[in-house]
Amino acid sequence: MLLLAAGMIMFGGSIVQGAIGFALGMIAVPLLVEAGFSLSQAVALTTLAIGIQVLFGAWRLRAHIPWGDVKLAAAVRYLTVPIGVLLLLSVESMDAQGMKRLVGIGVLLGVLMRSFARSKAARDLPLPVSVATFCLSGVLQGLVAMGGPPVVLWMTTRDWRAQQARAFTMTLFLLNAPLQVLLLLLLSRTMSVDVLLMALVLTPFIFLGTTIGLRIGDRFSKPLLNKAALGVLMVIALNAIL
Hints:
The protein is an all-alpha fold. It has one domain. It has helices at residues 2-20, 24-35, 39-60, 67-91, 96-116, 127-144, 148-155, 162-187, 193-201, 203-219, 222-241. It is globular, with a radius of gyration of 17 Å. The two termini are 26 Å apart.
């Protein structure tokens, strides 16, 4: 039953991710917790699912990867993802409702940050600002698998083509995901190899959902899809909090 629930959640989340380029973690984590997974299991399963989804995309866009920025962001996140994982393990003893509220607040903050990621003027940010942004991203990634919103907000200040932006986020995630999953496997009492295998079993659902999402994204305007996705995420967040 859990496998079926996870498959449906990953399928739906992959459709949204394929259509607009974000939101799989923000959709999957609260719904997986609602379905009965522990927070560690939900974060690990989502991390692996996103890793599977972006692996081939990062390889296809390898010529567009802005390695200078990737190296800085990945290095900072290598230091801060473990902090997020330790925070996750410290709150996992909360009751189920408390965990749902925590994840709901995380989703809500992500939605608000994503809403601010609009047309800001491209400029070189001071190094401390970039480092602080990547620190926040790493902590959120380790805690609730939602490290994307701070990075998306940071990218609004870069004069990048769409291919560079996609290559940056995909590569950054791929470089940090193995560390996060390994820490959860070693430190979490609720994690097991079975959860990792479940992500592999769900690969067809993720691939199919992504394919459908890409086609939807080609048919409708990005602003409309963004508004619809943010609306859905807001409902999920409020449902988890209230």
